[in-house]
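Sequence in, structure out. Go.
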Amino acid sequence: MSIKITLPDNSIKEFDAGVSTLDVAKSIANSLAKKAVAGKYNGQLIGLNDALSADGSLEIITKDSDEGLNVLRQTGAFVLAAAIKALHPEVRLGEGEAADDGFYYDTDREDGQLTIDQLPAIDAKMKEIINQRAD
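Output:
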C-alpha cells in the first residue's frame, strides 16, 4: 500500500506505507537526512524511525532549528539517565529535561551525590549508548 506525504512546500511525494521520516529526508537530500533529528507528522512530533502508515503532512525537524535543538537536548537527558543507571543502579532519578543551555537530571542516592570525578565515566557511557543506538 502506498501513502501520500505532503511536505511543507505543499509538494506531495508517494511512498510505501511504513516509510520513516529519515527515509523521506533521504529521498529529498542526503544532507537533509544528516541534519534530521525528528519529524512532525500531522502536527505531532515523532521519531526519525517511526513508521508512517497513512497519508499526511510531514515536516522534517533539523538540528539547526530551535525545535531540533530541544529534541537533541531532551534526548541527551534520556541518554544521561540511562548512563547513570547503568553505572550507578542505586541512584534514584528525579526530574530530567532539556534546559535553555543544555540538559540535566536530578539524582539522589543514600551515600551522597555523584561527584565531578565520576563525570568522565558517565560521559564515556553516554557515548557508548549513543554508538550502540547508531548501529
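Check: The domain at 67-134 is CATH 3.30.980.10 (Threonyl-tRNA Synthetase; Chain A, domain 2). The chain has a mean pLDDT of 93.
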